[in-house]
């Protein structure tokens, strides 16, 4: 039986991913008596509250970049190493230590805020009751609350004809735990996850093949960015095949045989390992008892209104469970805080128009606001300023010349409508862009803002100067 100290709470939060965790902490800060339920286990089947995905990716990306730089970039700095040894298990240990440290910090925060954190599978029974099921013993208990917040997140989509064994064929999450660098690695799906994993294992030495069903690369992005990214990744040696829909992957004696179809027919390739990174779906299977009547759409997303309210009174859904905004951790965190405030009588609506997106590749890709193609489609009069990163002196000093900054502003009002960056540290540079859009800044505001020299952020400033000169 899950250890529970009470049966009545003000708030029960189901799920301790970024959205659920932020929500539980904020509820407790607001004086609400809060329980947080989670049945997550780590790669070693240990109970954990931590959603390891993005932190694990960051930890391994950092290791992979260091290894790659040592081999390919340090010599030009006059730093030479005779023998470079790659110890993947030490690298994984570092990642696991980081995850353990962050997991402990979460538990400290739960304890500090008097949040009951319960390890169990939760099922919504009705608007005020949640059933807890112990994973090991299957014993059940019931807890009650005035408000229930569903934040059970999402899981990787699997493909028919491809059996994930996490030994040869991995899902995107388990692909962070490989204990060796595969010689030839195929990644199915050139989405955010596939590209980040390609960056990790490619930089550690795998020969990468990415098979992407869509003809258009990163179709959500501003097209100028996706074209540039495609060229840069190809130049880096990624074998990126578009319009290539994978239909099967089978493990043989020595290799995995993948079959995919494109316009020219059916093809077969042999690789050593495969990662399936074909997207995510909401974790709503068995989240609610049928008699609870929680309304889902045909894809399993929880129906919510603009205030994250489900069709059941007092029941909210946040993060990847809903179609309100993109499936991004920071969007989920904002919703968690919003809902906690909302039930405490504070209404600070989220501005879904200004949610930044980042792809942690090298160079990084980050954007906020609208793309050129979406604005042209609505006939909006726009002016664009583009500044190439190779003109930025800091980028030259650190030998990271790839990419550009693109700013789009309204031609008449000068209001900034979108900022799109591909380049080193784009994930950090985008913060200024988000602030500009959040404050409804004009391009003139950005052009008049002094940027420190020499910094990469000058490229953002310079793009605004280019735009201003065009506008004049
Ligand atoms: P995605 O939907 O972005 O990409 C999956 C890709 O797989 C799509 O392009 C799709 O066309 C392709 N695909 C599907 N079936 C295929 C097949 N049979 N053969 C070949 N290609 C196929 O999903 P993702 O990259 O897995 O990411 C999942 C979610 O997690 C996304 O919402 C993403 O935004 C989020 N995420 C965000 C970050 C970040 O913020 N940096 C990192 C990882 C994941």
Explain this structure.
The protein is an alpha/beta fold. It has 11 helices and 22 strands. The radius of gyration is 24 Å and the shape is globular. The model has no long low-confidence stretch (mean pLDDT 95). The protein binds nicotinamide-adenine-dinucleotide. The site of nicotinamide-adenine-dinucleotide has 26 residues, from helix 4, strand 12 and strand 18.
Summarize the helices and strands and which ones pair or pack.
Layout: E1 8-14, H1 18-29, E2 34-38, H2 53-72, H3 88-112, E3 116-119, E4 121-126, E5 129-133, E6 140-150, E7 154-156, E8 169-171, E9 184-188, H4 192-203, E10 207-211, H5 223-235, E11 239-241, E12 245-251, E13 256-262, E14 265-271, E15 273-276, E16 280-282, E17 315-317, H6 329-343, E18 357-359, E19 364-369, H7 372-377, E20 382-388, H8 393-397, E21 404-410, E22 416-423, H9 426-438, H10 443-447, H11 458-471
Helix pairs in contact: 1-6, 2-3, 2-4
The structure holds nicotinamide-adenine-dinucleotide (NAD).
Give a brief rundown of this model.
The chain is built from eleven helices and 22 strands.
Task: Just give the CATH class of the largest domain.
Answer: Alpha Beta
Secondary structure tally: strands: 22
Helix amount: 25-40%
The main β sheet shows up as: 7 strands, mixed
What radius of gyration results from the CA coordinates? 24 Å
Q: How far from one another are the termini? A: 70 Å
Q: Structural class, from secondary structure content?
A: alpha/beta
- Helix segment tally: 11
Bound molecules: nicotinamide-adenine-dinucleotide
The CATH superfamily of the largest domain is known as: FAD/NAD(P)-binding domain
On the 0 to 100 scale, the average pLDDT is: 95
Q: Assess the beta-strand content as a share of residues.
A: 25-35%
Looking at the overall shape, the CATH architecture of the largest domain is 3-Layer(bba) Sandwich
Number of domains: 3
* Shape summary: globular
Within the CATH hierarchy, at the fold level, what is the topology of the largest domain? FAD/NAD(P)-binding domain
Regions with little confidence, pLDDT below 50 for 5+ residues: none
């Amino acid at each position: 039986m899950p250890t529970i100290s009470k049966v009545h709470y003000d708030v029960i939060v189901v799920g301790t991913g970024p959205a659920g965790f932020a929500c539980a902490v904020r509820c407790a800060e607001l004086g609400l008596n809060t329980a947080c339920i989670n049945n997550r286990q780590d790669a070693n089947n240990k109970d954990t509250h931590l959603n390891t995905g993005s932190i694990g990716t960051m930890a391994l990306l950092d290791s992979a970049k260091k290894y790659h730089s040592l081999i390919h970039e340090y010599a030009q700095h006059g730093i030479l190493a005779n023998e470079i040894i790659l110890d993947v298990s030490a690298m994984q240990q570092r990642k696991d230590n980081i995850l353990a440290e962050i997991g402990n910090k979460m538990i400290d925060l739960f304890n500090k805020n008097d949040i009951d954190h319960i390890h169990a599978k939760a099922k919504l029974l009705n608007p005020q009751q949640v059933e807890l099921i112990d994973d090991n013993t299957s014993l059940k208990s019931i807890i009650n609350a005035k408000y229930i917040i569903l934040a059970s997140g999402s899981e990787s989509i699997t493909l028919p004809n491809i059996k994930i064994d996490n030994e040869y064929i991995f899902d995107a999450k388990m692909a962070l735990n490989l204990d060796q660098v595969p010689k030839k690695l195929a990644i199915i799906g050139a989405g955010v996850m596939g590209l980040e994993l390609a960056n990790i294992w490619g930089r550690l030495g795998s020969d990468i093949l990415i098979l992407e069903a869509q003809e258009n690369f990163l179709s959500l992005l501003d097209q100028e960015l996706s074209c540039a990214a495609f060229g840069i990744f190809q130049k880096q040696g990624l074998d990126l095949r578009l319009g290539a829909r994978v239909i099967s992957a089978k493990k043989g004696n020595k290799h995995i045989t993948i079959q995919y179809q494109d316009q020219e027919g059916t093809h077969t390739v042999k690789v050593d390992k495969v990662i399936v990174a074909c997207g995510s779906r909401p974790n709503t299977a068995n989240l609610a008892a049928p008699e609870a009547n929680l309304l889902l759409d045909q894809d399993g997303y929880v129906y919510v209104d603009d205030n994250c309210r489900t069709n059941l009174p007092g029941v909210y859904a946040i993060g990847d469970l809903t179609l309100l905004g993109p499936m991004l951790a920071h969007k989920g965190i904002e919703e968690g805080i919003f809902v906690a405030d909302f039930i405490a009588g504070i209404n600070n609506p989220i501005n879904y128009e200004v949610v930044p997106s980042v792809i942690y590749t090298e160079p990084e890709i980050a954007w906020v606001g609208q793309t050129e193609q979406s604005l042209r489609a609505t006939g909006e009069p726009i002016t664009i300023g583009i500044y190439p990163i190779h003109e930025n002196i800091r980028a030259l000093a650190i030998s990271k010349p790839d990419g550009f900054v693109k700013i789009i502003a309204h031609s008449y009002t000068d209001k900034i409508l979108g900022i799109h960056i591909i380049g080193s540290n784009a994930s950090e540079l985008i913060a200024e862009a988000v602030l500009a859009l959040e404050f409804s800044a004009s391009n003139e505001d950005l052009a008049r803002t002094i940027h420190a020299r020499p910094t990469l952020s000058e490229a953002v400033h310079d793009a605004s100067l280019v735009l201003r000169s065009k506008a004049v």
